[in-house]
Amino acid sequence: MPLSLVTRANGLVFVSGTPPFDLETGKFVRGDIETQTEASLRAVQRCLESAGTSLDKVVMVRVYAANAGFYSAINRVYARFFPENPPSRTFVPVASWPMEFDIEIECVAVA
């Protein structure tokens, strides 16, 4: 794919839409939406750390989900990763992806 997972520019770090992908194994994480959400957020966290920042520096998140009905389940997992002063966020229901997963998460953080 013609994209960068993480890009730094002007003091910000941009993480591309990240599906439930295990960066260690290089494989998608299968499971219910909570399992997929946790895998996506862990991958986002790793991307941020590789760019020298962290989840507590995130200022904006976009969550793309294949079903608007996943909203509450996603929030349960999301709240564990952003327990205090959560960043701005947009939740976007989408039709589907060309691969078998139900969520992608992207973010912008301060470097």
Strand content: 25-35%
- N-C termini distance: 25 Å
CATH C-level class = Alpha Beta
Poorly predicted spans: none
CATH topology description: 60s Ribosomal Protein L30, Chain: A
Q: CATH homologous superfamily?
A: RutC-like
| SSE topology string | EEEEHEHEE
**Main sheet summary:** 5 strands, mixed
The largest sheet has its strands arranged as 1-2-7-5-6
- Given the helix and strand composition, which structural class is it? alpha+beta
CATH architecture: 2-Layer Sandwich
- Radius of gyration, whole Å: 13 Å
Number of helices: 2
Shape: globular
What fraction, in percent, of the residue positions are helical?
25-40%
Give the count of structural domains: 1
Mean pLDDT: 95
Number of strands: 7
Overall description:
With 111 residues, the protein is α+β, with helices and mostly antiparallel strands. The chain has one domain: 60s Ribosomal Protein L30, Chain: A (2-Layer Sandwich). It has helices at 33-50, 71-81; strands at 6-9, 12-18, 21-22, 27-28, 58-65, 88-93, 103-110. A five-stranded mixed sheet has the order 1-2-7-5-6, with helices on one face. A two-stranded antiparallel sheet has the order 3-4. β1 and β2 form a beta hairpin. The mean pLDDT is 95.
